[in-house]
Amino acid sequence: MTNAASSESGPDILSHRQARQSRPGSRGLLSIVIPCHNEEEVIESTHRRLVAALPSTGMDFEILYIDDGSRDRTLDRLEAIAAGDPRATVIELSRNFGQQSAMSAGLARARGDAVVIIDADLQDPPEVIPEMVECWRCGADVAYGRRRSRDGETWFKLVTASCFHRFFASLVPYPIPVDTGDFKLLDRAVVDAVCGLPEKRRYLRSLVAWTGFRQEPVWYDRHARPAGETKYSTRKLIRLAIDAVMLSSDTPLRAAWWAAGVLATVGVGCTLSACLMPTSDGTLVAGIAAVVTLAGAIQTSAVAIVGEYVVRTYREVQGRPSWVVKRTIEGDSAAGAGHADHHGSRAA
Ligand code: UDP
Ligand code: MG
């Protein structure tokens, strides 16, 4: 294991440098973290593809499946996988906590010198992992999958995702790669830094970037889902986008100042034109109504934005963990012989 780099004051650059020097050239442990929610159709192929691809990394590996409250037979299939493969571990969460929490639960449990996060649905090919390991061995602390192409997505999702990534990158005050998802390899130092952060609600893509470690892209083609369906409706995607922005940036709060500036300019312009130009009473009333409506809309949006931040602050103050582990099934402990871990929820 390499040195931990997290501290109360943030990542410790010195121990990070030491970690880089001691990075294993051949063996060492690689952890694979896989959040799973209703993936019964694909999970067995995912395991087969992973165990076929990982030996070429030259590292020992553990595969951590986090069952995020699946309602189909995903958990049964995962138990069978763990029963037949000592390298697989299943972490069963007590309900559906969401992908971000499932990934965080996996990171908290991972023991590897490097940790790869990958979706369960084979959209991100496991065969790219050896390239990520190579990139890590060459000195990258974060080897993130950057999408060269994305099959099986609607043009609407492609355009909105691309616009959102760029908009998001412009909001956060540290470099964050665009056209990437959660498929990435993290050095142990980065995992420790992220897991050491006190916040409960998390958007991992920005937390990893926030730690400031060296990030390098590994280009790949993202495939269509071979089976099953996306867990993200448009509504859930919008919620995720709002969460991403509000958990990572305070710019929306400050935007009220810009809105106030716009409003004041419009107000002064309307007042001047009302004084200087001969207008009928009707035009004047319409102008005043427009300004009052605009002011109302801006004020209401500002209150709504403040409300969103207050909700997130309230949830943080409550201090509840972001996930609860119901049971952990170790790969070598045979089918169903996992141990319960009701307090498992390290405060994420
Ligand atoms: N996922 C999860 N919990 C959820 C939703 C999704 O663990 O509440 C997992 C899901 O099983 C998959 C990954 O997160 O492994 C990404 O989900 P999905 O493929 O639906 O997202 P998309 O690729 O469509 O953006
Ligand atoms: Mg997917």
Explained architecture:
The protein is an alpha/beta fold and 348 residues long. It has two domains: 14-231 and 321-329, Spore Coat Polysaccharide Biosynthesis Protein SpsA, Chain A (Alpha-Beta Complex); 251-318. It is built from eleven helices and nine strands. Strands 7-5-6-4-1-2-3-8-9 form a nine-stranded mixed beta sheet, with helices on both faces. α10 runs antiparallel to α11 (281-318). The longest helix is centred in the C-terminal third of the chain and has 38 residues, at 281-318. The protein is elongated. The chain starts with 12 loop residues before the first helix and ends in an 8-residue tail after the last strand. Bound molecules: uridine-5'-diphosphate and magnesium ion.
SSE topology sketch:
Blueprint: H1 13-21, E1 29-36, H2 43-53, E2 60-67, H3 74-84, E3 88-93, H4 99-109, E4 114-117, H5 129-137, E5 142-150, H6 155-171, E6 180-187, H7 188-195, H8 204-210, E7 215-222, H9 234-248, H10 251-276, H11 281-318, E8 325-329, E9 339-340
Parallel strand pairs: 1-2, 1-4, 2-3, 5-7
Antiparallel strand pairs: 3-8, 4-6, 5-6, 8-9
This protein binds uridine-5'-diphosphate and magnesium ion.
